Amino acid sequence: MDSCTVMELASQFGDKIQNLKNCFKLQACSGDVNCQQLLTGIDKEICELEVLMALMRAEVAREKEHLKSLEVLKEQVLDLQKNLHYANDNLPQRLPQKKVCTKNEASENGTTGSPLGSKKDAVSSENGTVVQGARKRTRPPVPAIEYLTKDEFEEVPKYIKGRINYDSVNLAIDELNKAVSAKYSIVGKPRSVIMKSSDAIKKQFDQFKSQETKETKGVHFIVDGDIKTLSSLKMDSSARCVLTILRHCGRIKEVRGGGCTRYCVCV
């Protein structure tokens, strides 16, 4: 026996004696048919209860295993939630965008456009000859300076970027792109339209054209004056630092001459 005290031993012996007394009482009823049927029914119900208890124990065991798997899943969800919160808190305000080929670029590459035999390109004359028409010239889209990635910014030497942070660089890129877009919205207009514009627009147009050189042919660029008048970026030491970073990362290149520095957009 596992009992260690006399009181526990006495309790166990008392239970056994009581069970024996109950058995003697039931033995007197062994000849009674009704009692036997009752005992048989009780025995059957006890067997059914034992089977039911076994099924319940098995179900409890399965639920315990299921609970363990849910605990593991909970940990994974919490880790994922933690990572998502970290990504949300540290996501840059501006992300580099994948360059998409525009319709004008595709047409310049010969991938789109009307076939040579279409009605737009050929006109039949009275004597049956076909005159090939010239296609309408389309100006290339104005390129934009692409945002820096976090890795690119981190690779810039400390002596170049100084105290400039990552978000400040991309904010400055927004202003530079604004200046480029505003300038070439004027330069891209036909001269006939410019001649009908105000004197201020004419002066701007002539000034933009006077800054073009052989080295800037086919290149979109701005100068210090454009940044001051066409954007909200101040040409202070921070702006100069940003331009140096962009030149270091290959976003712009400088063309000097004629008393000004041209910041050309690299594409």
Automatic annotation (TrEMBL):
- What's one GO-annotated cellular component? spindle microtubule
Disordered: annotated span = 101-137
> What are the protein's UniProt keywords?
Coiled coil
Q: What InterPro entries does the record point to?
A: SKA1, SKA1_MBD_sf
Residue ranges annotated as coiled coil are: 63-90
- Per its record, what are the GO molecular function terms? microtubule binding
The superkingdom of the source organism is: Eukaryota
One family name in Pfam for this protein: SKA1
A GO BP annotation: regulation of microtubule polymerization or depolymerization
Give the family from UniProt. Belongs to the SKA1 family.
Q: What is this protein called?
A: SKA complex subunit 1
The species this protein was found in: Lingula anatina (Brachiopod)
Question: Which gene is this protein's source?
Answer: LOC106163760
